[in-house]
UniProtKB/TrEMBL annotation:
InterPro entries from the UniProt entry: DUF1559 (IPR011453), N_methyl_site (IPR012902), Pilin-like (IPR045584), Pre_pil_HX9DG_C (IPR027558)
Lineage: Bacteria, Pseudomonadati, Planctomycetota, Planctomycetia, Gemmatales
Keywords: Membrane, Transmembrane, Transmembrane helix
Pfam families listed in its UniProt record: N_methyl, SBP_bac_10
UniProt keyword annotation of Nucleotide-binding present: no
Transmembrane domains' residue ranges: 21-42
Domain DUF1559: 43-299
Originating species: Gemmata massiliana
Source organism, top-level taxon: Bacteria
Protein name: DUF1559 domain-containing protein
Amino acid sequence: MMRRTGLIAHTVSHQARAFTLVELLVVIAIIAVLIGFLLPAVQKVREAANRASCGNNLRQMSTACLNFEANYGFFPSSVKDTGPQRSWAVQFLPWIEQGNLARRYHFDKHWCAPENADAVGTQLRVFSCPSSPSRFRTASGEASVKLTDASGKTTTLKFLFERAACTDYAVVDEVKDDPYFAGLVDVRGYGVLREDQFTRVLDVTDGTSNTIMITECGGRPQWWVRGKLISEDKTFNSAPWASRGNDFGLDGFDMNDFEAPAGACAVNCSNSNEVYSFHPGGAQCAFADGSVRFVNQNVTTRTLARLVTRNGGEVINWADY
């Protein structure tokens, strides 16, 4: 009996065998195919989460702007150029739960003054889109400040700034002359937030739900064109969230001539003073009614201009963008 059992065990051990090379390669190929199917799904889920987070940032900023208007009776200016220079974002600080940072900021000094270096170097998640290739960036360079004395004489001072925290959002304050004279837009005009002006809700005659207030302008100070990195620091002066240059006028971009003063390409073409995001298919914009909407990257400069002007009288169809 013992011999028979040993024989059976010996036979079973001879039947067990390892994978052949061909079988191993087949298993590896199957796993690779499964990963190939899985990765796009994971990327889509990640991008959906990033887009939701970015939209929430814009929603916080638009709500802050509306609360500002409800408190003072007017919207903040896009930038403050007379007196101490600063951006719209500096004015928002107390309204986006950044009261402590606002107290560290010297409002009697220019944003680029040494006294404000600590405050403007503070990274804020609300000013950063998670889809940007490098989320928390800084910019260094030279800022120009114009001073006008009582006699009307203007002088320009230069301030060096280092490691100022950047933002992925900006204000579109107007539709510029160049696209108008090139026939790319219907009218010229101002946006909701304007330099050294304080717009009221009654001034937005095109309707708050039809007028963009804040938009994505991601990736600065790097210069990006259609997802391709062109330069490391072209937009350094407009990149910091506190910078006076953190607003721009719409002129569109010409994909055939990067130096052209205007172009028909309006969204996700260039982040040098244009609407730009790293979301596939378009960019998110906060409107003057507090809503956040995704604007298709195929819209023309003409269509986007209709959404920028606050009193242009243009007809807007949601299907157009």
